[in-house]
Amino acid sequence: MPAQETILCSRCKKNPAIVVRNLSGEVTCKRCFMGEIEKRVRRIMSRYKMMNKEDKIAFAISGGKDSITMLKIVMNIHGNLIAQQSRRGHAPVAITIDEGIKGYRQESLDISRRACAEAGLEHVVFSFEKEFGLSLDALVSKASDPGKLPEFLEKKPRGQLKNAGKLILKPCSICGVLRRRVLEDVARRLGATKLLLGHNLNDEIETFLMNVFRGDVTRIRRAASSLLDDNPEFVRKIKPLRDVLQQDIVLYLHHAGGQFQSAPCPYSVGDVVFRGEIQGILSQMEDSHPGSSYNVMKFLDETFPDVKQPPVESSISRCSNCGRPKSKHMGKCMACYYVERLCGKNYVEVMDSFISRHA
Ligand code: SF4
Ligand code: ZN
């Protein structure tokens, strides 16, 4: 049999090609592929001025493919900048939230620990069970017991809020509110000026399109403005993988030799139906019109250039417990409500105690 001819990378023309790029049709080697992804991340970070030498950065690490890839790429391309930050006393930190999901969270915690140790990062783990007194599993079970429903649901919500009671007790609502809030608060109170999140291009445009289909302009504006938000009250959240497709993240991590948790969260099943439909539409569009995902992102970036203005102070309602913004329909913010009504604790005191042990 004749020996098979090796196809060479169409960029460097030296190494064997192992990756087919859908959009350009090019075939590239591992080195050129990884270089291209790193270039994308470098470009988006520079375009949105995501990091400078004065910053102290906090990586949000869940142990999934996105956060582990983000950690590897940012440490690779900005090692010198991070070393400068460290010399100024602003060493980076990684934060992982252990929500307490049986059969799911432990594996990703182990992966996160290993990845942070390899990167030489201080790793802070916030456990719902240890700090709030209840794991997410226990919170979900308590919230699903009609005899133990929290007081704030007793007032019958009307109009737009008619379904609010059911929605706020869904696992992902409790988890999402507490996780986002804890990440933000731990990062801020450990002195971080930037919180790095692993959201990729697919996440961003799926969320955008879901909001388009819901007609939720407020959320679209909020998501777009968060990229440039420099409100000193919040740690600025940055998304270095915002311009990288999910499939490229998986491929990058495979070639970088990184581990990640691939099993989905058991609570995600009921909450991903709508997102799954959007994913289906996008995948069809990518098949028939390669590059569609990049074009949606381009549309988003170029159509919402003015949304960086933070809301006017007088229009914000504030939580009577922690002082953070809240819905005008409630006395406290959702994080304070969940912790108070479901766990019988005060969110601010829990956070003070946690920070006093980790600062
Ligand atoms: Fe939390 Fe829902 Fe995500 Fe699971 S799928 S980690 S419950 S937000
Ligand atoms: Zn509050």
Reading the helices and strands in chain order gives: EEHEHHEHEHHHHEHHEHHHEEHH
How many strand elements?
A: 9
By helix and strand content, what is the structural category?
alpha/beta
Low-confidence stretches: none
Helix content: 40-55%
Task: Give the neighbour order of strands across the main sheet.
Answer: 5-4-3-6-7
The hetero compounds bound to this protein are: iron/sulfur cluster, zinc ion
How many helices?
A: 15
Radius of gyration: 22 Å
Mean pLDDT: 86
N- and C-termini, Cα separation: 66 Å
Looking at the structure, what is the overall shape? globular
Strand content: 5-15%
**Major sheet characteristics:** 5 strands, parallel
Secondary structure blueprint with pairings:
Blueprint: E1 19-20, E2 27-28, H1 30-47, E3 57-60, H2 65-77, H3 79-87, E4 93-98, H4 105-119, E5 122-127, H5 128-132, H6 136-143, H7 164-168, H8 171-189, E6 194-196, H9 201-214, H10 217-226, E7 236-238, H11 246-256, H12 273-288, H13 292-303, E8 317-318, E9 325-326, H14 334-343, H15 347-358
Parallel strand pairs: 3-4, 3-6, 4-5, 6-7
Antiparallel strand pairs: 1-2, 8-9
Overall description:
By secondary structure, the protein is α/β, with parallel strands linked by helices. 49% of the residues lie in helices and 8% in strands. The chain has 15 helices and nine strands. The chain has helices at residues 30-47, 65-77, 79-87, 105-119, 128-132, 136-143, 164-168, 171-189, 201-214, 217-226, 246-256, 273-288, 292-303, 334-343, 347-358; strands at 19-20, 27-28, 57-60, 93-98, 122-127, 194-196, 236-238, 317-318, 325-326. The strands form three sheets. Strands 5-4-3-6-7 form a five-stranded parallel β-sheet, with helices on both faces. Strands 1-2 form a two-stranded antiparallel sheet. A two-stranded antiparallel ribbon has the order 8-9. Strand 1 and strand 2 form a beta hairpin. It is globular, with a radius of gyration of 22 Å. The model has no long low-confidence stretch (mean pLDDT 86). Bound molecules: iron/sulfur cluster and zinc ion (ZN). Zinc ion binds next to helix 14.
